Amino acid sequence: MKIQHIFFDLDNTLWDHRKNAYLTIKNLFEKEEITLKYSIDFEEFHSVYHDINERLWEQIRDGIIGKEYLRKHRFYDTFRHFGVEDENLSEFFEEHFLDKMLYHNELVEGAVYILDYLKSKNYTLHIISNGFQEVTERKCILSGIDKYFQTITSADSVGVRKPNPLIFEYSLGLSSADKEESILIGDDWIADVVGARRFGMDVIFFDVYKENRQEENLKSITHLLQIKDYL
Ligand SMILES: [Mg+2]
């Protein structure tokens, strides 16, 4: 059957979460004069934060922790790494992080071009995100890409996250799409690739870090424009 519906992951597939988070934390860091007060270098701070945040998101994905745990710990653990144990300071960062991040809306290179291209070929486009419900739609609207999507599904509104097949079932149901005529495009190996395959739908792995996985029948891209090779 011919592909009709394309489901995109949002963070780091279309919306450049890494870049936007970096810029947001840098602003907070400078505004709070962290380097001056605690002698912490921003690049070092960000690199520690990045590792801690990635690990916590993996734990959320695997159902080990909930999002409250992540929100309580990502900045606290980062500051603690530099010898600063201050709950108020961490809370301040967490509270302002999600709000302020929406002022930064950099998209992944080629995102608008490829969305225009797919639209012009009459595909129906959707989002399936593991992000927070309250943030996902605002990210799409503020970055100007909401108009491309017929449906936007966030893990919070379903109660389960990718790779759980239920979120794919929910999202396809919302779109009246058959899995045989659908494909997912995402950057997380477990959540997106393993998840889509387990559910039984086709998938393109956005191999951002060029992991170069050798797997049979794996559709893989390292730049969004390469989607044209498949669709
Ligand atoms: Mg992603």
UniProtKB/TrEMBL annotation:
Q: Which InterPro entries match?
A: HAD-like_sf, HAD-SF_hydro_IA, HAD-SF_hydro_IA_YjjG/PynA, HAD_2, HAD_sf, PGP-like_dom2, Pyrimidine_5'-ntase_YjjG
Spell out the Pfam families in the cross-references.
Answer: HAD_2 (PF13419)
Q: Is rRNA processing there in the keyword field?
A: no
Listed A to Z, the keywords are:
Hydrolase
| Signal sequence, start to end | none
Molecular-function GO terms, alphabetical: 5'-nucleotidase activity
What is the protein name given in its UniProt record?
HAD hydrolase, subfamily IA
Top-down, what is the taxonomic lineage of the species of origin?
Bacteria, Pseudomonadati, Bacteroidota, Flavobacteriia, Flavobacteriales
